[in-house]
Design goal:
Elements: H1 2-28, H2 33-40, H3 47-56, H4 65-77, E1 83-84, E2 90-91, H5 92-127, H6 136-145, H7 148-162, H8 182-218, H9 222-229, H10 234-246, H11 248-259, H12 266-271, H13 277-286, H14 290-318, H15 320-326
Antiparallel strand pairs: 1-2
C-alpha cells in the first residue's frame, strides 16, 4: 500500500506540473493563436468577433492569469481542449481523436511486435551464447542505426515502385470512405505494411541487444546455477528464472515506447504521408495552431505518464524487491 501511495502521489504531482506547463508555455511564446488567426483573415473579422475569439481561446484580457488558469482547468476537466483554427475552428478533441487511432494502430502494433520479437530472439541468443545465433546481433544492430526516413525510402523504392506489391503513401486508397468492412480493412493493412515493417526492423536491434546482454548477466547469477543443479528442465530455467529477471529492464523501456506511441513517429508519417498524430503535430506547428499543439502535447504527456504507471505496477509484480525497497 505504501508503494502504491508513493507512486500515486508522484504521478499526480507530475501530471499537475505537466498540465500547468502546458497552460503557461503558449502564453510565454511570441504572439497568440488569435493574432495568428487574424493574420490569415485580415479585414474579414469584426472587433466583436475578435473579443469572442479571445474568450474562446482562453485569452480574455479582462481576466487575470489566475482566473484564466482556473478556467483552463474547468475546461480540461470537462474534456474541452479548445478550438483548432487551422481546422476550421473544429474542437481540438475531435481533431486529435481523428488522428490518434491511426498512430496507435500502426506505431502501437509495430512497437509491440518489435518488443516481443526482439525480447524472444535476444533471450534465445543470450541463452545459447557463443553459438551461430550471435551473428543475428550485428545484422539487427546495423538496421537499427539506419535512419527511419532512409529505410522508408528504400522500402518504397523496392516494394512499391519496383515490385508494386504495396502502396507508397496514405492509410487507404483515395476516394474510399472509411468504414467497418473487409475491403477497407484490407486497404488499411496493405497501406500500413511498409511503415510498420520499417518501424519493426528499425527498432528490433535495440531490443535484441538489450535482452541478450541482460541474459548473459543473469545466467551468471547464483539462483540460475542452483536451478540448473536441481535438475530442472532447461526450458523452465530459461523462462522462470533467467528470462523473467532479464526482461525487467526491457519492461521499463517498453513502457516508455508505449507512451511515445501517441506522439507517433513523425519522420515515418511524413515519408509515407500517413495521417497520424506526428504529422498532425507538424501541421499544427507550421500553422502556429497553439490550441492544437497544446492539446497534442498534453495527450502525449499523459500517455507517457500512464505508460510509466503500468510499467511500475508490472515491475513491482515481477520483482518483489522493488516493493521492499520502496517500503
Amino acid at each position: 500500500m505504501r508503494f502504491i501511495l508513493r507512486r500515486t502521489a508522484f504521478y499526480a504531482f507530475t501530471a499537475w506540473a505537466a498540465i500547468t506547463i502546458n497552460f503557461f508555455l503558449p502564453r510565454m511564446m511570441k504572439g497568440d493563436p488569435v493574432s495568428a488567426y487574424l493574420q490569415k483573415n485580415q479585414g474579414r473579422i469584426s472587433p466583436e468577433a475578435i473579443d469572442s475569439l479571445r474568450t474562446l481561446f482562453g485569452l480574455d484580457s479582462t481576466k487575470s492569469l489566475l482566473e484564466q488558469y482556473i478556467d483552463y482547468w474547468q475546461l480540461l476537466l470537462s474534456g474541452d481542449l479548445g478550438r483548432s483554427f487551422s481546422k476550421g475552428l473544429a474542437p481540438v478533441t475531435d481533431v486529435i481523436a481523428s488522428a490518434i487511432p491511426w498512430t496507435i494502430g500502426l506505431v502501437g502494433l509495430a512497437t509491440v511486435l518489435s518488443f516481443a520479437l526482439g525480447t524472444a530472439i535476444g533471450g534465445l541468443i543470450g541463452w545459447r551464447r557463443g553459438s551461430r545465433a550471435d551473428a543475428i546481433v550485428p545484422v539487427a544492430t546495423f538496421f537499427s542505426t539506419v535512419p527511419y526516413f532512409w529505410m522508408g525510402l528504400i522500402a518504397i523504392a523496392v516494394f512499391s515502385t519496383t515490385l508494386g506489391w504495396f502502396p507508397a503513401s496514405h492509410a487507404y486508397d483515395k476516394g474510399t470512405q472509411p468504414g467497418f468492412s473487409l475491403e477497407f480493412a484490407g486497404q488499411v493493412i496493405q497501406h500500413g505494411f511498409l511503415p510498420a515493417l520499417t518501424l519493426v526492423i528499425g527498432s528490433l536491434g535495440g531490443w535484441i541487444l538489450g535482452m541478450r546482454n541482460m541474459m548473459i548477466t543473469v545466467l551468471d547469477e547464483d539462483y540460475v546455477t542452483v536451478a540448473q543443479a536441481k535438475g530442472l528442465r532447461p526450458v523452465r530455467v530459461l523462462i522462470n528464472y533467467a528470462a523473467r529477471n532479464a526482461s525487467l529492464p526491457q519492461l521499463s523501456s517498453f513502457a516508455m515506447s508505449l507512451g511515445f506511441i501517441v506522439g507517433g513517429t513523425l519522420v515515418m508519417e511524413l515519408v509515407f504521408s500517413y495521417p497520424g498524430a506526428g504529422k498532425l503535430l507538424l501541421d499544427a506547428t507550421t500553422a502556429k495552431d497553439y490550441p492544437l499543439m497544446q492539446g497534442l502535447f498534453l495527450v502525449i504527456t499523459l500517455a507517457v505518464l500512464v505508460a510509466n504507471i503500468i510499467a511500475d505496477v508490472a515491475y513491482a509484480i515481477l520483482d518483489p524487491r522493488t516493493r521492499q525497497m520502496e517500503a
